[in-house]
Amino acid sequence: MEFSIRAANMEDCKDVARMIMELAEYEKMTDEVKVTQRDLEQDGFSKNPFFHCIIAEVPEQNKSKEGHMKIGYALYFYSYSSWKGRAVYMEDLYVMPEFRGKGIGKALMSKVAQLGLAAGCNQLNFTVLDWNKSSLDFYLRQGCLDVTAEMGYHYMSCNGEALQHLAQP
To answer: Which among 43, 34, 35, 45 has a CA at the least distance from the CA of 11?
Structure first.
């Protein structure tokens, strides 16, 4: 199947917001999504963006059943490891279900890896849900390491009221 990968622009935020909700539906977590199209526009396309995004797009003749030509995305940002230095963190990797198994997810992930290497990063980090065996198997086939299984690390988060409480002096 013909597709292309390119950097997202502000006009893509509507489709990225749509695909974020589709990913949340797949992960059974739609109630957790608080980010709006406007947030994406501000946070990804300001002078100092909080994230970067790439889009997978198909030509008009291959558009989705719903008429979408933007059929996948990867959202990522740069971070730093006190042990290993520069890193790229892939927050989301998503391809619409009808386009899976065609190399699009691999191409998106490969592009994030290329961008990370070009920025001097030496690792690509991300999370995957423990029940998502097909994704876990996909990542393992790419040579990725399951850090939780191999090293015992757990991904932790502090948000909402807990974050507010923690921020108190």
So the answer is: 45
Among 98, 116, 112, CA closest to 55: 112
Helix axes 13-26, 37-44, angle to 10 degrees: 120
Give which of 19, 145, 154 is closest to 94, Cα–Cα. 19
Q: What is the dihedral of CA 57, 76, 19, 137, to 10 degrees?
A: 90
pLDDT in tens, 21-53: 999 999 999 999 999 999 999 999 999 999 999
Whose CA is closest to 104, among 2, 13, 25? 2
- Taking residues 142-156, report their average pLDDT: 87
The encoded tokens of residue 71 equal 């059929």
Q: How would you label 63-84 residue by residue, b for 16+ Cβ within 10 Å and e otherwise?
A: eeeeebbbbbbbbbbeeeeeee
Q: Is 78 a catalytic residue?
A: no
Residue of 26, 94, 139, 155 marked active site: 139
Fill in the DSSP letter of residue 74: E
Tokens read off for 48: 């100092």
Half-sphere exposure of 28 (CA within 13 A, CB side): 3
pTM: 0.93
